[in-house]
Specification:
Blueprint: H1 6-16, H2 19-37, H3 44-75, H4 79-82, H5 91-122, H6 129-154, H7 161-176, H8 183-200, H9 205-229
Helix pairs in contact: 3-5, 3-9, 6-7, 7-8, 7-9, 8-9
Length: 238
């Protein structure tokens, strides 16, 4: 008996396992691998907060956005005048800039807060190797898009801002989705499609922006919350 290698007993115990036990072990191993390579502490509630903030911000900015678009279309009689970044700044421009900054600040603050809370429950924390990979992959297209959108704003092309923000944001989410939850990939694709539609249908660009940053954030955030934080999948987390 003592000459029987331990590997023999390991093989025998594996053979005695039921298919359900084997499936459970495989799911556990897969969960461990996912937690080592993907950031799974992202909270769906952060998406809900970002969506609510975007809807409120869009409602407040509607009149200023329409007024700014109308003023710039009337005043810009040639390409040269559109490159005059010194002029054309008025209360509408400043309101949109401040409104967008506040919405972004609320969204980031909500994401950090709810993700930190979920990280405490899952034991993953808010910053590790997987989180750094996620931030790097989402930052490159997001920062590039931010600079591009700022240029559009400075050159008085406000009607292109909703489409540009949706497109770059969608690309950033899709690019970083392999490092976090699968729903982020579909959210990114949805934002990208809406951005392309807003690029063509500029008269409804603000409405499309509200759907993308507001409604879709709330929808996908709720799906992630009930699936991973209140649903059966939450039991697989440590």
């Amino acid at each position: 008996m003592c000459c029987v290698p331990a590997r023999y007993f390991a093989v025998q115990s594996t053979l005695l396992m039921t298919p359900r036990d084997q499936f459970s072990d495989l799911a556990h191993i897969r969960g461990l691998m996912d937690r080592s390579t993907r950031f799974l502490s992202l909270s769906g509630l952060s998406g809900v907060i970002a969506g609510i903030a975007a809807i409120i911000g869009a409602l407040l900015a509607k009149e200023h956005y329409l007024a700014l678009c109308w003023d710039d279309r009337i005043q810009r009689s040639a390409l040269a005048s559109s490159l005059d970044i010194a002029g054309g700044w008025n209360e509408h421009s400043w309101f949109l800039l401040v409104d967008g900054a506040v919405v972004l600040l609320v969204a980031i603050s909500g994401a950090l807060w709810f993700t930190w809370r979920r990280g405490l429950r899952t034991g993953q924390g808010i910053w590790d190797a997987s989180a750094s990979r996620l931030v790097v992959n989402i930052a490159v297209p997001l920062v590039s898009g931010g600079v591009f959108c700022l240029a559009l704003f400075l050159y008085h092309l406000p009607w292109l801002l909703p489409a540009a923000t949706l497109i770059f944001y969608g690309l950033a989410l899709f690019h970083a989705s392999k490092f976090t939850l699968d729903e982020i990939r579909w959210l990114g694709l949805s934002e990208l499609v809406l951005g392309l539609i807003a690029l063509i249908w500029v008269d409804a660009a603000l409405l499309i922006w509200t759907i993308g940053f507001g409604v879709l954030h709330i929808f996908y955030g709720a799906v992630m919350y009930f699936r991973y934080e209140r649903g059966p999948a939450s039991r697989d987390l440590p």
